[in-house]
Amino acid sequence: MAEGLESVYSHTIRSLLSPIGHLLDDESVSEVMINGHQEIYVERKGRLEKTDARFDDEAELASAMRNVAQFVGKTLDAENPSIEARLPDGSRVHIVQAPAARKGICVAIRKFSKSKLGLDDLVKFGALSEEAAEFFAVCVAMAKNIIVSGGTGSGKTTLLNCLSALIPDTDRVLVLEDSSELQLAQEHVVPFEVKQPDRHGRGGMTIRDLFKASLRMRPDRIVVGECRGGEALDMVQAMTSGHGGSMSTLHANTPADALNRLETMCLMAGVDLPLYALRSQVASAMHVIVQISRFHDGSRKLTHISEVLPLTDEGKYEVVDIFRLEGELSERRMQWTGNYPTFAEEPYVSGEGVELINLTKKMWKERK
User: Are residues 226 and 354 in the same domain?
Assistant: First the structure.
């Protein structure tokens, strides 16, 4: 989009969103939820609060949302009653309109963080331990495939941003998203975004389309914002065919559930594969699963960092926790379980650089 046109959209959208402008500017607010033009909530520190903000009527709210949709080249109408979009500052927006939304247009705005968090910040917040951060550095340096699993609003995208910051600047990184949200800091990043087809069904690009195209563009690493459907099979096959160090997120409650959900999404691709063969590919492709959760007090913490092992003799998935959240309530922190990942010796065997060897020494050599 031309810079001048984007500036016009930004000014127009900001004007139309003036009833919630102060909420969008409030750094303590992480999400704004509009349940019809008269009912607006926010999330602060993981807790929901009702606000006094209001739009004058449904027409005012509808006008604002149509402009948000147009900003990303989408249309909010009877044929497209629910869409994902983003604000000019990058904040993610999901819109559902009436009659599907019975109170009127329903909107969730996940705010774009103006400051980029790193793993060091997550350590300071108590979301993970220093040892776990070191382990991530090793995994990314060794080009292990990583899946971030968690529920809605648990912090999956934030954690994926932090992990992607560990990717070397020398790598060419392709980013695939439904609606652009990730903020990779590397120099050589190529972002792709889903494009909806026109009213005649022409010109669309799905995540699967983008994935297939990306494999022909010499990626060193592929980062998928979120796996939701059949593109999971393309990702699994890419991971098992030489594209290591890839990352993505998905919705699941435990590392084991994440594998089952990934399997289900692969089946949605409509490719006729024997179940054992599919499970073998999934288990081979995924190296590390990171589970993150949001707790009742509003805090977000990593609960498991697990390695995916080969299938059992019975053809079932097997994961082993390398780090796990342990302890009582507020004193809970990520603890090393004493388990060594099966790839602990790989840097020594393959003759990787001294820097990587030094990382692994502290992680598992000095703890034996």
Answer: yes
